Amino acid sequence: MHHTIEVRGLTFSYPDGSPALRGVDLHVAPGEKVALVGPNGAGKSTLILHLNGILRGQGEVQVCGLPMQDDHLGRIRAAVGLVFQNPDDQLFSPTVGEDVAFGPTYMGLAEAEVGRRVEQALAAVGMADSYRRVPHHLSGGEKRRVAIATVLAMEPEILVLDEPTAGLDPRGRRGLIRLLAELPQTMLVSTHDLRMVKELFPRTIVLDEGRVVADAATATLMADAALLAAHGLEA
Q: How does pLDDT run across 14-44, given as a tens digit for each residue?
């Protein structure tokens, strides 16, 4: 069985030469929901951007059995739904419906299929009636849901989310956690929200200074106060 995400010996340096990733090995099996945690500057966002080829370092990255090469980029980007930390980076159309329709339309799907996907994606995130709403009038939590819907409309195998609960109020956060619990996709979620990690993710990977320093059952990691403290994490 191929892993949905397979990363081996991945290194990446910023243009100024400072290293961001120093030999990362990581695999996520189909259907797994995995949390990626670590202090700021650990390389979490840099790693995530390698999973659909926005950044390209040295080493091996395979997604759904496809090596990260130019001729596979289209298929990989359709398979990996990447939701950025700031939903405003993903919402740019006059209405919610147009935002969610953008990806499937760009894929060249027929109008009826685009409509079906938009309806399904908005229903999946609990925003079925918001088709005509203006994205910048939405609350933070609603924006986050619509950003996820724009990705679900592409019917990806994998969801990769960067800090999904950042900046949400308690109600928005609870709603988002419920949503993520219900979605069937394989998931890799970068977050500082360790309460969410405990609740949602059976497995956690700790990244620090561009290296995987721990990869274990969440319950095991969360019980290791010394490990958490050593990597700037608070249980």
A: 899 999 999 999 999 999 999 999 998 899 9
Cα–Cα nearest to 138, from 205, 185, 107, 93: 93
Chain segment 66-84, per-residue pLDDT in tens: 999 999 998 998 899 999 9
Contact 29, 10 (CB under 8 A): no
5-13 sheet: strands from edge to edge: 19-28, 5-13, 58-63, 66-67
Task: Give me the DSSP letters along 66-95.
Answer: EES-GGGHHHHHHHEEEE-SSGGGT--SSS
Would you give the DSSP letter of residue 29? -
Cα-based distances in Å from 190 to 5, 110, 136, 200: 15, 34, 25, 13
How far is CA 109 from its chain centroid?
A: 24
Sites in the chain below the pLDDT cut of 70: 1-2, 235
% of the chain exceeding 90 in pLDDT = 85
Q: Which position has the token pair 């609740």?
A: 199
Rounded (10°) CA dihedral 34, 39, 41, 46:
0
What is d(CA 23, CA 100) in angstroms, rounded to the nearest whole number? Answer: 36
Per-residue confidence (pLDDT) for residue 2, from 0 to 100: 65
Angle (nearest 5°) at CA 111 between 109 and 113: 65
